[in-house]
Design the sequence.
């Protein structure tokens, strides 16, 4: 009842201009969605507690970003240059489309271990949090406890400083990117095999192919969200340990794999500063 009263107070006057039926329809939908999100948050907290109490990792060493062991030296060198503000980093990165960059990031050992960790957890009877409504077989790896030692470090030490140099018109300073969401997507014949054209709820996205054995299933980039042009499409292949960095609002799709299984690590990087000025990537509202 308190939620309904607050909704009436905040939006009743303006929405009733559309008519009583429209007002009550909108109110029902908004409050139902709010309850759904509150329930999802509660379920997540329960899930996190269960995982923290009962789960023992199969590959505990990947829970800390061991740079010399797991990160390709050329990528480390590139990011060090970015931290110095050098735009020469573009010389060491493959530009495959406007604002779309491809570069080796992880060793094959790391990729194999992260896949093994995901398979091991998926085989357990613990609850799983799927990354989004578009991928039914992925995992939110931060829920496994990988945030502090791995994804936070990957985000702050590597992605943010690199994005600051590659996208200067969006982020004058690396600190503008301040939060992230990291998850695994999994494509396999008989399960999810492709993903239709979409944009991400992110300012910058890193997509790293972990393997394992698969055919086809490329990334297909169009234009930006507001000016996409199918005639300008660019196909980008997936290679083991290689990451593709792009703006979240760049329209893209995952074409269908034709055999095997493909795993990718996705990191959505977000900026509260950018969103406060430019609006939510999903709805465009401030």
Sequence:
């Amino acid at each position: 009842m308190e939620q309904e009263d607050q909704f009436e107070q905040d939006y009743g006057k303006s929405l009733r201009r559309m008519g009583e039926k429209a007002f009550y329809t909108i109110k029902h939908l908004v409050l139902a969605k709010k309850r759904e999100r509150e329930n999802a948050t509660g379920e997540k907290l329960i899930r996190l507690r269960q995982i923290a109490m009962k789960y023992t990792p199969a590959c505990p060493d990947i829970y800390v970003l061991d740079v010399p062991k797991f990160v390709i030296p050329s990528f480390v060198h590139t990011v060090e240059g970015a931290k110095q503000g050098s735009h020469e980093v573009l010389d060491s990165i493959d530009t495959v489309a406007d604002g779309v960059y491809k570069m080796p990031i992880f060793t094959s050992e790391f990729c194999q271990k992260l896949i093994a960790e995901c398979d091991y957890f998926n085989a357990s009877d613990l609850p799983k949090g799927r990354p989004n409504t578009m991928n039914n077989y992925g995992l939110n790896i931060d829920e496994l406890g990988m945030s502090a030692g791995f994804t936070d470090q990957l985000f702050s030490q590597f992605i943010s400083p690199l994005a600051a140099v590659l996208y200067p018109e969006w982020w004058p300073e690396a600190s503008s990117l301040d939060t992230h969401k990291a998850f695994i997507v999994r494509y396999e014949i008989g399960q999810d095999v492709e993903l239709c054209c979409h944009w991400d709820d992110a300012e910058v996205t890193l997509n790293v192919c972990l393997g394992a054995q698969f055919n086809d299933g490329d990334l297909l980039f169009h234009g930006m969200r507001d000016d996409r042009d199918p005639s300008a499409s660019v196909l980008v292949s997936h290679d083991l340990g290689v990451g593709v960095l792009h703006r979240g609002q760049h329209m893209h799709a995952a074409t269908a794999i034709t055999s095997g299984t493909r795993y990718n690590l996705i990191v959505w990087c977000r900026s509260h500063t950018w969103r406060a000025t430019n609006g939510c990537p999903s709805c465009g509202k401030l």
The mean pLDDT is 83.
